[in-house]
Specification:
Layout lengths: L1 H14 L1 H12 L9 H13 L4 E5 L3 E6 L7 E7 L3 E2 L12 E2 L4 H17 L9 E7 L7 H9 L8 H7 L8 E3 L2 E2 L8 E3 L5 E10 L15 H14 L11 E2 L2 E4 L10 E10 L2 H22 L2 E8 L8 H11 L8 E3 L9 H5 L4 E2 L2 E2 L2 E2 L8 E2 L2 H20 L4 H9 L6 H11 L1 E5 L5
Parallel strand pairs: 3-6, 3-7, 7-16, 8-17, 9-15
Antiparallel strand pairs: 1-2, 2-6, 4-5, 9-17, 10-13, 10-14, 11-13, 12-13, 14-20, 18-19
Helix pairs in contact: 1-4, 1-11, 2-4, 4-11, 7-8, 9-11
Length: 443
């Protein structure tokens, strides 16, 4: 029966082709930034309710979920789509006021998710499966507008800066046994599928170097040059790069956001931002210690003070091998062996990585997109590869998981060992919100 059901959902997705294309077009014209996706959320809600589903809304401000019931509710598998856009003001479909644009493909993810919901419900397959499927529209995946998000945090609107992090805290995934989503693979217009790739975890740092003003021409000896402390810190960070192991993938890329106030005043307030990235939590923690030590040492040498404000970023991806194997088997209907690549890492980070530490998840990426991510040139190059095929592969994988009494889901759940519980995860994130103040050392 599974093969017959798979044929039914694929036929339904083909029948929905124009509807899915219209969803992509509609969403591309309403790009919104994280924790502000009210129009997008309302649009997705309308589509899900049109399929007869009840939506739970207002999750992490703009997120929502709707559960479609199977024959039994022994298992619950989630399909995710991300609501937010990025800032790309030169993109042809950018919002004129905010500069937001769907230059990362999240609008297509939402179409994929809605397409899976339609296929399972309209085809009549879902009532024959031994488990439920929950459809999530999640906010704020892109790590942008930190000042705004910090303000929301201070006001008690959110506790964490990424949407899936906040949803985890709220317990929105507590009844979910596995999750999947498909992301765009930028600058890959050809038909390609990428499985079991990793991603970088990161911590964000905002650093202030505080010195003492003085006349830069007349009495520089009376000042303490915070810019010199910042430049020395950058050199100390650079000197540590040879201690970073290649397999840990550590990246540190600081920028100066303020270099001083006036050219004839010794800089007394200099500001720097950086991410510290790594492929695993242990390497990330060690790299953060080296960066902090570099900053403290540089300030000691100059006699300046430093304030390091740390913010938890996102965790590395831990893609589930068994789920990936199922997805690969279903992809063989649409991709040749040469078109499928395994272990190609994402160039950046995703908060799907956070969820993979708690439940079995997959986050494949597909081609069919031209242009670099987050750029004005990003666009769909192959509609079938970008829109239809991910929808079909996720629907087919859900059938594998929830058919035959949910035996495959039971096997995956039995073999999965979470890296941490929800309580441990929240404690980890809370520990990352730190402000380290180093007093000036003179004499």
């Amino acid at each position: 029966m599974k093969e017959e059901w798979k044929e039914q959902v694929c036929r339904q997705i083909d029948a929905d082709r124009e509807e899915l294309a219209q969803i992509v077009r509609d969403l591309s014209r309403m790009p919104e930034l994280g924790y502000k996706e009210y129009r997008t959320s309302a649009y997705v809600r309308e589509k899900l309710e049109g399929l007869g589903l009840n939506c739970r809304t207002g999750l992490a401000r703009t997120g929502l979920r709707a559960t479609a019931k199977g024959r039994s509710s022994a298992w619950n598998v989630a399909v995710l789509g991300e609501l937010d856009a990025v800032i790309s003001p030169s993109h042809p479909e950018a919002d004129e006021k905010t500069g937001a644009a769907h230059a990362c493909g999240h609008h297509v993810q939402l179409a994929n998710m809605l397409g899976v919901a339609s296929a399972l419900i309209r085809s009549g397959v879902l009532p024959q499966l031994d488990g439920d499927v929950t459809f999530f529209a999640v906010p704020a995946e892109e790590f942008v507008e930190m000042e705004y998000r910090q303000k929301l945090r201070q006001e008690g609107e959110i506790r964490y800066l990424s949407g899936k992090q906040e949803l985890i805290r709220l317990g929105a995934f507590e009844d979910i046994h596995a999750a999947m989503m498909v992301h765009s693979h930028s600058a890959t217009p050809a038909r390609r599928l990428f499985l079991q790739g990793g991603s970088m975890g990161f911590v964000a740092k905002q650093i202030r170097f505080l010195g003492k003003e003085a006349h830069a021409g007349g009495a520089p000896h009376q000042g303490i040059n915070a810019l010199n402390a910042a430049m020395a810190a950058m050199m100390c960070i650079h000197a540590n790069r040879e201690t970073f192991r290649d397999e840990d993938g550590i990246r540190v890329h600081p920028i100066l956001t303020k270099g001083g106030d006036l050219v004839n005043v010794v800089p007394a307030d200099v500001q720097m931002e950086t991410y510290v990235r790594a492929r695993n939590i242990e390497a990330l923690s060690e790299a953060c210690r080296k960066v902090d030590r570099s900053i403290h040492g540089a300030c000691y040498a100059i006699g300046a003070k430093s304030v390091i404000d740390n913010m938890p970023g996102q965790l590395p991806l831990r893609q589930n091998p068994a789920l990936s194997r199922l997805f690969r088997e279903n992809s063989a209907r649409f991709f040749t062996q040469e078109e499928i690549q395994t272990g190609v890492d994402l160039v950046g980070s995703t908060d799907m990585g956070d969820l993979t530490h708690l439940i079995p998840c997959i986050h494949p990426t597909v081609g069919g997109y031209a242009g670099n991510a987050h750029s004005k040139d990003f666009c769909i190059a192959d509609w079938e590869t970008a829109v239809l095929l991910p929808t079909k592969m996720m629907a087919m994988t859900l059938i594998d998981l929830l058919a035959d009494g949910g035996s495959m889901m039971a096997e995956i759940q039995r073999d999965f060992a979470p890296a941490m519980t929800r309580e441990q995860y929240c404690a980890y994130l809370d520990e990352q919100f730190t402000s380290v103040r180093q007093p000036a050392i003179t004499g």
